[in-house]
Write a structure and sequence with these properties.
About 70% of the residues lie in helices and about 0% in strands. The chain is mostly helical. Helix 5 runs antiparallel to helix 6 (about 90-105). The chain is elongated, with a radius of gyration of 20 Å.
């Protein structure tokens, strides 16, 4: 990690800073890099976004993505942009970005994060059952048992929306103790 990123991370970790002070500090640090620096644009976008200033964050996220980010930051920028534009009423674009990110991301941390925000966007568009199915699908691999059942229930939420899931996928009972 670079010295610059360490200083940026310290700003994010400083809970004593107000939103405006955080923006000022991130802007100061971003000025050390070129105007089109993708990482600086991303950090600036996040500062405005976390302060509730989505209108100012949106073009910065878009510029950061256009400038080119490493894989993890790109995924984070897509998730954060999609969340921001969902809050700005651009629900269809948000859903499209998040669905693509969810489908393309490798299983694990950032895919799980994309799924969480995709589920929120689905709920915002009155598609709660689909959102719940996404969350269950991502949760299933983390369960010590019932993975197949939970995946079956997730599928039923979407493919049999007229009833509550009742999948019995043949998983045996809990072992006796």
């Amino acid at each position: 990690m670079t010295d610059w990123q360490t200083r940026v991370d310290a700003v994010w970790d400083d809970e004593s800073l107000s939103d405006e002070a955080r923006i000022d500090e991130i802007e100061r640090l971003a000025s050390e890099r070129g105007a089109g620096d993708a990482v600086a644009l991303f950090e600036r976008a996040g500062a405005y976004d976390s302060a509730g200033r989505e209108q100012e964050a949106e073009p910065l996220y878009r510029a950061a993505l256009e400038a080119g980010l490493d894989t993890e930051r790109r995924t984070r920028a897509v998730i954060q942009l999609a969340s921001t534009i969902r809050n700005l009423g651009k629900l269809d674009e948000s859903l499209s970005l998040l669905e693509t990110e969810y489908r393309q991301a490798r299983p694990g941390g950032m895919r799980d994060a994309a799924a969480a925000f995709y589920a929120l966007a689905l709920a915002s568009s009155d598609r709660e059952r689909e959102g719940l199915a996404i969350v269950l699908e991502v949760l299933a691999p983390h369960l010590p048992r019932y993975q197949r059942s939970v995946r079956g229930y997730a599928a039923e939420l979407v493919h049999a929306p007229e009833r509550m899931p009742t999948a019995n996928t043949g998983e045996g009972p809990e072992p006796r103790r």
